[in-house]
Design a protein that fits this description.
By secondary structure, this protein is an alpha/beta fold. It has seven helices and ten strands. β4 and β5 form a beta hairpin. The radius of gyration is 19 Å and the shape is globular.
Length: about 280
């Protein structure tokens, strides 16, 4: 049977750590298939193993039970087939935008001319044309995350993993970048998995929302998001799905549920010290 590129199969996945000589279960019997080109959001309260699951999929950890398969082949270590974006952009401050994105191609067996073309295409894709020679300290937090997304995509991986990529941004910037991420995902046609504490973000971005429960992390429920794109956060249908997901948490809601305002200044935003460009 032919498996379409970008198919991720997670079968009976369990993971535990050892703390003070005692086993600490983190994930327990996770079963999930992500179809090619699908956008899956994973939401859950702190300690449910969401980020650990992403680390296993990207290949940063190999000690687990069960199966992790990409296109039918077992995942073993990191690979250019899987790109990841973290909450912190992790750009090198001494490299400019173009050079930071080029790091995503450092192990790619491509001619230099093709690498340069791919870098230019992805700078345009994330809306940063004209900022090729800007350094991280000259960028807003939102622009820095765009660079991180471009770096993860420049090698054209089969799966894009996103570990709370907008968690450190202010509400307005986060909302704008969520819309941009949908545009980029649609343009690339890539399989995407997002980990988030933000239920509204999960519903806005995902084709399905995987709700996890903690200690050890298990899938409680998978909620389909049968809404046309672009999605209207103010619509009754959107609110119903969001409320449906929230009900799964009972008294233990996720840490962040899309606040309209924040009582903290934007981290790395437009008002931060130093030279900043507009988002």
């Amino acid at each position: 049977m032919t498996i379409e590129a970008g198919t991720l199969d997670i079968r009976q996945l369990s993971k535990q750590y050892t703390v003070k000589g005692e086993p600490l279960p983190v994930l327990q019997k996770i079963d999930l298939t992500v179809q090619p080109g699908e956008f899956v959001s994973i939401v859950g309260s702190s300690g449910c193993g969401k980020s650990t699951l992403l680390r296993l999929v990207v290949g940063l950890e190999a000690d687990y039970q069960g199966e992790l398969l990409l296109d039918g082949a077992r995942i073993a270590g990191t690979s250019l087939d899987r790109g990841i974006v973290f909450q912190e952009h992790r750009l090198f401050p001494w490299l400019n935008v173009e050079q930071n994105i080029a790091l995503g191609l450092i192990n790619a067996e491509l001619p230099e001319s093709e690498k340069r073309r791919s870098i230019a295409e992805h700078i345009a894709l994330v809306g940063l044309k004209g900022f090729e020679t800007a350094y991280p300290h000259q960028l807003s937090g939102g622009m820095s995350q765009r660079v991180a997304i471009a770096r993860a995509l420049v090698n054209r991986p089969r799966v894009l993993l996103l570990d709370e990529p907008f968690g450190a941004l202010d509400a307005l910037t986060r909302s704008h970048l969520q819309q941009e991420l949908v545009r980029i995902w649609a343009a690339e046609g890539i399989t995407a998995i997002l980990v988030t504490h933000d239920v509204e973000e999960a519903v806005f971005l995902g084709d399905r929302v995987v709700v996890m429960e903690p200690r050890p992390g298990r899938i409680r429920r998978i909620v389909p998001v049968d809404l046309a794109r672009p999605r209207d956060r103010a619509s009754l249908a959107f609110a119903r799905i969001k409320d449906d997901v929230l009900q799964e948490f009972g008294g233990e809601a996720p840490r962040r549920i899309s606040p309209a305002f924040s009582d903290k200044p934007p981290r790395g935003g437009l008002l931060a010290s130093g030279l900043r460009f507009a988002i």
